[in-house]
Amino acid sequence: MSTTTTTTTSATATTTPPDLDVRRVGGRIGAEIRGLDLSAPLTPDTVAAVNAALLEHKALFFRGQRLDDAGQLRFAAYFGELTTAHPTVPSVDGQPNILPVDGDEGIRSNQWHTDVTFVRTPPKASTLRALVVPPYGGNTLIANSAAAYRDLPEPLRELADRLTAVHTNDYDYAAPRNEKAAAHRRQFVSRKYRTAHPVVRVHPESGERGLFVGGFAQSLVGLSSGESRDLLRILQAYVTRPENIVRWTWEQGDLVLFDNRITQHYAPDDFGDLPRLLHRVTVAGDVPVGVDGERSRVVEGDDAGHYTPAADRAA
Fold this sequence. Notes:
alpha+beta; four-stranded antiparallel β-sheet; 16 strands; 6 helices
């Protein structure tokens, strides 16, 4: 993967300390931060600068950090309270806040999605750390849903502003490849969730509007299943336009931080039976709010209070 060598020059970059080297890796999304040792304590000014870069670039990449689990947890906690690993899937042994993203064949999540949108308060941000990387393939793709929203023709944008989508972890999966994949699926849907979110989410910090859809969005309120499927496919196609995507080629020790409120991501299943292992730590988010001020609501299931501390503030 090649990177540019020009530091950012947009408005948010003016708040970035001169010793924070931020370099774009995509035209519409993604920047690599160089020269920052995440194993050392970060000052409040540095955390604020990283957060400003995150708001601008949506996804930040840190090469060769060589963090352990404790270091990843410490870094993620700079940006807010942490969730537990997942509402239904077990954590790493002895680490209740860390989800193993294991590339075992048959349980790979190779679909576009935003993390855990089937609950009312999805994560604010996600961190991924590479422990085992295949010699080829296994990249992560991240898409800018704000750019996708801006790309919409005006009539479609006005329609999207008024739509609400129901997200669920219990949808029409493809047949599992093997018994291990089937067992994972049973675990994934052991608690069933359905949540109604605005299709266009207003970012709580930047005020940007972004398409809040992805793989867990299965239907549109007030529309038939066929109408929902067609409209969601059209909207999703804008998110995954090549110009809205950055591809990160992992090296062992890399850490990625992305804004879960205004991105989607995808892990292509292109590395055969080779091992791939990432650890994920997520920062608790808030209740999504639409253009009209309407907040997300639970349709089925609980408020996932066992998963995210944000549930206690969602009333």
